[in-house]
Amino acid sequence: SWTAANIAEQLIESVREQIGEGRAICGLSGGVDSAVAAALVQRAIGDRLTCVFVDHGLLRAGEREQVETDFASAIGAPLITLDDSEVFLGHLADVTDPETKRKIIGREFIRSFERAVAQALELQGQGTGSGAGSAGAAAGADADSAAGADSASAGSSASAGSVDFLVQGTLYPDVVESGGGAGTATIKSHHNVGGLPDDVEFTLVEPLRLLFKDEVRAVGRELGLPESIVGRHPFPGPGLGIRIVGAVDRERLDTLRAADAIVREEMTAAGLDNSVWQCPVVLLADVRSVGVQGDGRTYGHPIVLRPVSSEDAMTADWTRVPYETLALISNRITNEVPDVNRVVLDITSKPPGTIEWE
Ligand code: XMP
């Protein structure tokens, strides 16, 4: 019978079978899925799992801090943080096509994970160093030291063991919409499915591949993860990179990050977190419109609010957010976020729209 306890037990058992005596790393995104996948694998193989958080520069405000504090302790595995925003933003410069953005981000995630392997081996006591790499010391390590550790241990990796498995929080809908299901077309390449490069050398471990989001949340609760993690709204791995229509750069990311923080704050204050599945905030960076602010003409960008209600993200309806909340959000964004002079509401269901704009 379907109980979260049974499912958790079975998943842990099959992860144990798949990985055997091997070692794994798991990319944490700050979302529910990767956190639950990591917790399952931690229960299955213990300290042969290391978690990796890649700061790709496409994160929302406060995301990295939350992962470094809450997630690492709840999951019980050591965490390596890579500061790879220069790398990601460099590759994304001038790219406007949504699928190209997704492919670049998916590929760079894998390159980051590859760079994390040497550090993960250190943490697991398999490195060339003196075992100085503790969880505390490694958290916050930057890209430079990651590269350094990589080359330092390259010659001895055979004797020092290897990390062959990469854990991902892929869900059933991700598989279907990335074209993985029988006879289905690709709608968009989710970063951890269709967005993967062809030359991945890791063997993928995807314990949630047959589950829907609500089932994943139930399994997470069963494993003792706190509500602050299992109750989070979905957030895509490619992050704010697919919420800027147009090319991605630091200035545009700052604009979107500021608007997104206001939306989250006001939705929470209005008590709407439980009635909304998620609310993407999108910057139309290639669109400008005329406005009047203070005592002058402006020619700024629109921000789109995309609040949706859904059971499983395969279909969705736009959420009827109270007018007062929408008014508050609109006033705050246009007053507080430079370069934004208009806020619009997306009232499209899925289908025909998708939840994310790219
Ligand atoms: P769409 O836009 O396809 O989104 O209607 C469906 C759900 O999936 C999330 N999403 C992603 N999640 N990696 C993820 O981890 C991705 O590449 C990705 N793309 C979309 C989206 O936020 C929504 O919950």
Automatic annotation (TrEMBL):
It is an enzyme of class 6 (ligase). ATP binds at residues 29-35. It catalyses: XMP + L-glutamine + ATP + H2O = GMP + L-glutamate + AMP + diphosphate + 2 H(+). Residues 2-232 form the GMPS ATP-PPase domain. One of its GO terms (molecular function) is GMP synthase (glutamine-hydrolyzing) activity. Pathway: Purine metabolism; GMP biosynthesis; GMP from XMP (L-Gln route): step 1/1. Its EC number is 6.3.5.2. Keywords: ATP-binding, Glutamine amidotransferase, GMP biosynthesis, Ligase, Nucleotide-binding, Purine biosynthesis. Catalyzes the synthesis of GMP from XMP. Homodimer. This is GMP synthase [glutamine-hydrolyzing]. It comes from Dietzia aerolata. The lineage of its organism: Bacteria, Bacillati, Actinomycetota, Actinomycetes, Mycobacteriales. The chain holds residues 209 to 566 of 566 of the full protein.
